[in-house]
Amino acid sequence: MPNERIGVLCSGRGSNLAAIMEAIERGDIRAEIAVVIADRADAYALERAREKGIPAVAVVRKEHFDMEAFEGALLNELYTHRVTLVVLAGFMRILSPTFVYAFRGRILNIHPALLPSFPGAHAHRDVLAYGAKVSGCTVHFVDEGTDTGPIILQAAVPVMEGDTEETLAARVLEQEHRIFPEAIRLYAEGRLQTVGRTVHILPADEGGAS
Length: 210
Hints:
Elements: E1 4-10, H1 15-26, E2 31-38, H2 44-51, E3 56-58, H3 67-80, E4 85-88, H4 97-102, E5 107-111, H5 123-130, E6 134-141, E7 151-158, H6 165-188, E8 192-195, E9 198-201
Parallel strand pairs: 1-2, 1-4, 2-3, 4-5
Antiparallel strand pairs: 5-6, 6-7, 8-9
């Protein structure tokens, strides 16, 4: 039986959520999605979850007095659904140190650039503006900074002549759909060991508590 209960936080269409659900259905990841939470009531990610019979909840920022109340509502949903691993799949909000502390070492994020280069919300725009020849995506643990947590997996893609933010994003997204489920699989198997800033991937027969 799966041990990890995943809470997925989204803001938009949920394509990474779909990739994770597919990997679980194939048996690649020994975990279950306990709840999907979006900060927008119209996020298509919620519909994707409902189609699979997964609890789907909208926790909208403007419906809460301040960020503390908003994050309190998020945490309440995660606790209610007994979540053990939080996955940020296109969640377009910075989490406070208080939230990070509540799930320290148990929050994964996917960023559409090769960290530590080009952190923040406009990675593709920044990559193109800088004239970089290579971009990609990064799965990392979340800490109190913005896209500063220890790196788990990365994948590179070329930046092509004539690329726009949209064409680059599409190329990167293909790799996101590959490495995000892989990172979750490694976590669920207890094969990620963090020493300082370095995440070591343990052999399959050495996996333990993550």
